[in-house]
UniProtKB/TrEMBL annotation:
<keyword id="KW-0813">Transport</keyword>
<feature type="transmembrane region" description="Helical">
    <location>
        <begin position="639"/>
        <end position="658"/>
    </location>
</feature>
<feature type="transmembrane region" description="Helical">
    <location>
        <begin position="446"/>
        <end position="464"/>
    </location>
</feature>
<feature type="transmembrane region" description="Helical">
    <location>
        <begin position="533"/>
        <end position="552"/>
    </location>
</feature>
<comment type="similarity">
    <text>Belongs to the V-ATPase 116 kDa subunit family.</text>
</comment>
<dbReference type="GO" id="GO:0046961">
    <property type="term" value="F:proton-transporting ATPase activity, rotational mechanism"/>
</dbReference>
<dbReference type="InterPro" id="IPR026028">
    <property type="entry name" value="V-type_ATPase_116kDa_su_euka"/>
</dbReference>
<feature type="transmembrane region" description="Helical">
    <location>
        <begin position="399"/>
        <end position="425"/>
    </location>
</feature>
<dbReference type="Pfam" id="PF01496">
    <property type="entry name" value="V_ATPase_I"/>
</dbReference>
<dbReference type="GO" id="GO:0051117">
    <property type="term" value="F:ATPase binding"/>
</dbReference>
<feature type="coiled-coil region">
    <location>
        <begin position="95"/>
        <end position="122"/>
    </location>
</feature>
<dbReference type="GO" id="GO:0000220">
    <property type="term" value="C:vacuolar proton-transporting V-type ATPase, V0 domain"/>
</dbReference>
<keyword id="KW-0175">Coiled coil</keyword>
<feature type="transmembrane region" description="Helical">
    <location>
        <begin position="769"/>
        <end position="790"/>
    </location>
</feature>
<feature type="transmembrane region" description="Helical">
    <location>
        <begin position="564"/>
        <end position="587"/>
    </location>
</feature>
<keyword id="KW-1133">Transmembrane helix</keyword>
<keyword id="KW-0375">Hydrogen ion transport</keyword>
Length: 834
């Protein structure tokens, strides 16, 4: 089978690259994104590798870019989006130019930032001084001016003389508003109440020069007497980070000083404005190229990280690397290596050799934007073993179909279709959304799943004839009324016998007359319950049959007879037979027949019949009816049960006994010559999905059990047999969730219609119109929130469980590890998600 049905075939390759062409060659490989490198320097410390200096150089460039980006975002400049024109990794000359440009830009930004902080600090000091001078005008009176002495007088003798004459000194400044009360309390304590403090809160906040955050401050003037108290007050001001400013005691001197400060502030404001304009011009110029620079540096760093995985040969003239490559992409890799050598003009070409190995290769499933969502659902359970059958291909159909069985409503399915179609049609525009959040990313990643789920839900809604809990009479009901008008009006309940009140079958889906029937739930229960069992058995049979595909591919032909045959017989002879009896019952019993044993009243219960079949019991049928549907049914049922019971020891002992007998022959062959035996077995072998051995016979029968003791093999097989037998029963019952959720969804939709919307439809007049508008809005809200979102999520999770547990457990091992190629696109997308 092709690679569509299983993972890609992988090859372990060895590449030999000249050192001068290594950078460009790895850059070309990163653009292709189809090579997973192996680390050949596992025992070498990360700081002792060959290209650690270049990696540190890239780290320094990233640091500079982050600093510039922070400054750009601080100014509110929007960086351009370059998704459509992503630059390639820079060549060595471009790296030097880029480094010089970033160094120059960073130095200029640091210098501008430092100058701006200094000027803003000066501006803050001058602003505080102006506030002090303006607010202290009310602190002084004409009489106080004659008796006050400024704390900033230059002449010490006059100050001392003033103190002797009993004049008051003062200190003026500003302090943070939240520290005022503690500051005032401390002054009172150190002076024992001999300091007189006046203060005034500033109405407008000031800006911190370093951070730009607003600061609320208070202007204060402290009056005191004595030089010793003056020194104490200054120490307290220093401790509370208060800023002290000179304040003349003369009114005229203060006015003159205010005018000078205002002039200096205007000049400084002009300089700050010019500095801001220059900074904005520089940042705007840099912002045009910064995203490209960032991508180039990330690619360059990824290249050197990858080159650190290479090993240098003994002559120091060649780099050797090992990598996993999909065999389909080998020509692409060879072309990338030749392009990398040609880019630097290397005369010695690079070589790529495919080497043989017994290691288990990584699993790589090539996907597109449609299949990627379904593949992610499978990988969430476990990455497929190498080359085993991939369930994602079949999940594209079975997943939305089983979801729709539980979510069958034409109206609700249409809502999902519209939402999914919007995301699909506008996917290029929506893919550019970076900050949509995790929930949005999940919805957008599964847009094709949502679209298909909506389409299938619309189909099953047509089959159920259910549109927001109402039915459509598209083809005309096949039931008719035989009663006259008086009988209909006088009897609250009337029966319509199918032999006299029905003609033919409704062409598609459910007949709309069931919407009016009192036994609607009983009928739908029986119908949907049987339908869920039928779909469940078919789904499990398909899963068991898929194991044959794996056995054939890995040449484990003995497992077909020892595992698949007893498993499929056990499943079909019991539960497949039960499904057959459902169809046989539908076709055999008819209301129009005159033969009593074939009338609907004589139809036996399939469930009771199945229980009696397993317990070898009989149930007395009603008078005139037959216990069984056909004559040889009891003998056939006993035969099926006995064969199914024989399948249990077949599954339990078949494989261990086969391993026991084939192990002796292998031991004999190995004794004759281990080397020759391996060489013969290696010819044309297929790697194992779950083992590391390339031995074909291991793949065919032993399944990698050569080193296990027989006791463990018996125990292992016993666990698998018990698990399969019990899970066959439990998994069949598990599919009843299709019936349960479908019934719950239909009933919730009906309750919402009757309890909400029908109330508005019964209103009349202008008030009724307004009420209907409001009630319709509430009904839409509840429909979207409960029936579409909550019920849709519930049906999605149940469908996921049916695939993971009931379906994939029949053939899927999921013991592999994912193929993680060196890809620039994956690296950039991963960093954007973070």
């Amino acid at each position: 089978m092709g690679d569509m049905f299983r993972s890609e075939e992988m090859a372990l390759c060895q590449m030999f690259i000249q050192p001068e062409a290594a950078y460009t060659s790895v850059s070309e490989l990163g653009e292709t994104g189809c090579v997973q490198f192996r680390d050949l320097n596992v025992n070498v410390n990360a700081f002792q590798r060959k290209f650690v200096t270049e990696v540190r150089r890239c780290d320094e460039l990233e640091r500079k870019i982050r600093y510039i980006e922070t400054e750009i975002k601080k100014d509110g400049i929007v960086l351009p989006d370059i998704q459509d024109d992503i630059p390639r990794a820079p060549n060595p000359r471009e790296i030097i130019d880029l480094e010089a440009h970033l160094e120059k830009t960073e130095s200029e930004m640091i210098e501008l930032a430092q100058n701006e902080v200094n000027m803003k600090s000066n501006y803050l000091e001058l602003t505080e001084l102006r506030k002090v001078l303006e607010n202290t005008q009310g602190f002084f009176s004409d009489q106080e001016v004659l008796n006050l002495d400024s704390s900033n007088r230059a002449a010490g003798d006059n100050d001392a003389a003033a103190q002797h004459r009993g004049r008051l000194g003062f200190v003026a400044g500003v302090i943070n508003r939240e520290r005022v009360f503690a500051f005032e309390r401390m002054l009172w304590r150190i002076s024992r109440g001999n300091v007189f403090l006046k203060r005034s809160d500033l109405d407008e906040p000031l800006n911190d020069p370093a951070t730009g955050h607003p600061i609320y401050k208070t202007v204060f003037v402290a009056f005191f007497q004595g030089e010793q108290l003056k020194n104490r007050i200054k120490k307290v001001c220093t401790g509370f980070h208060a800023s002290l400013y000179p304040c003349p005691s003369s009114h005229n001197e203060r006015e003159e000083m205010v005018r000078n400060v205002r002039t200096r502030l205007e000049d400084l404001k002009l300089v700050l404005s010019q500095t801001e304009d220059h900074r904005s011009r520089v940042l705007a110029t840099v912002s045009k190229n910064l995203p490209s620079w960032s991508i180039m540096v990330k690619k360059m760093k990824a290249i050197y990280h990858t080159l650190n995985l290479f090993n240098m040969d003994v002559t120091k003239k060649c780099l050797i690397g090992e990598c996993w490559v999909p065999t389909k992409d080998l020509p692409v890799v060879q072309k990338a290596l030749s392009d990398g050598s040609a880019a630097v003009g290397s005369t010695i070409p690079s070589f790529l050799n495919v080497i043989d190995t017994n290691e288990q290769p990584p699993t790589f499933n090539r996907t597109n934007k449609f299949t990627r969502g379904f593949q992610n659902l499978i990988d969430a359970y476990g990455v497929a073993s190498y080359r085993e059958c991939n369930p994602a291909l079949y999940t594209c159909i079975t997943f939305p179909f089983l979801f729709a069985v539980m979510f069958g409503d034409l109206g609700h399915g249409l809502i999902l279709v519209l939402f999914g179609a919007w995301m699909v049609l506008c996917e290029r525009k929506l893919a550019r959304i970076r900050n949509g959040g995790e929930i949005w990313n999940i919805f957008f990643g599964g847009r094709y799943i949502i679209l298909l789920m909506g389409l299938f839900a619309m189909y099953t809604g047509l089959v159920y004839n259910d549109v927001f809990s109402k039915s459509m009479n598209l083809f005309g009901s096949r039931w008719f009324n035989n009663y006259n008008t008086s009988t209909v009006l006088t009897n609250p309940n009337l029966q319509l016998p199918p032999n006299s009140s029905a003609v033919g079958v409704y062409p598609f889906g459910m007949d709309p007359v069931w919407q009016l029937a009192d036994n609607k739930i009983i009928f739908l229960n029986s119908f949907k319950m049987k339908l869920s069992i039928i779909f469940g058995v078919l789904h499990m049979v398909f899963g068991v049959c898929m194991s044959v595909v794996n056995f054939t591919h890995f040449k484990r032909y003995a497992s077909i007879f020892l595992e698949f045959v007893p498993q499929i017989l056990f499943l079909l002879l019991l539960f497949g037979y039960m499904v057959f009896m459902m169809f046989f019952k539908w076709f055999s019993y008819n209301a129009r027949t005159s033969f009593q044993p074939e009338t609907p009243g004589c139809a036996p219960s399939v469930l009771i019949m199945f229980i009696n079949m397993m317990l070898f019991k009989n149930t007395e049928p009603p008078k005139g009816c037959n216990e069984f549907m056909f004559e040889s049914q009891p003998q056939l049922q006993k035969t099926f049960v006995l064969i199914a019971l024989c399948c249990i020891p077949w599954m339990l002992l078949g494989k261990p006994l086969y391993i026991k007998f084939t192990r002796k022959n292998k031991a004999h062959a190995n004794h004759n010559g281990q080397l020759t035996g391996n060489m013969e077995l290696a010819e044309g072998e297929t790697p194992l999905p779950t083992g590391f051995s390339g031995n074909e016979e291991n793949a065919g029968g032993a399944h990698g059990h050569d080193d296990e003791p027989m006791s463990e093999i018996y125990i292992h097989q016993a666990i698998h047999t018990i698990e399969y037998v019990l899970s066959t029963i439990s998994h069949t019952a598990s599919y009843l969730r299709l019936w349960a959720l479908s019934l719950a969804h239909a009933q919730l939709s009906e309750v919402l219609w009757q309890m909400v919307l029908s109330l508005g439809l019964k209103m009349s007049g202008v008030g009724g119109a307004i009420g209907l508008f409001i009630i319709f809005g509430a009904w839409c809200l509840f429909t979207l929130a409960i029936l579409v979102l909550m019920e849709g999520l519930s049906a999605f999770l149940h469908t996921l469980r049916l695939h993971w547990v009931e379906f994939m457990s029949k053939f899927y091992e999921g013991m592999g590890y994912a193929f993680q190629p060196f890809s620039f696109k994956a690296i950039l997308d991963g960093e954007e998600d973070e």
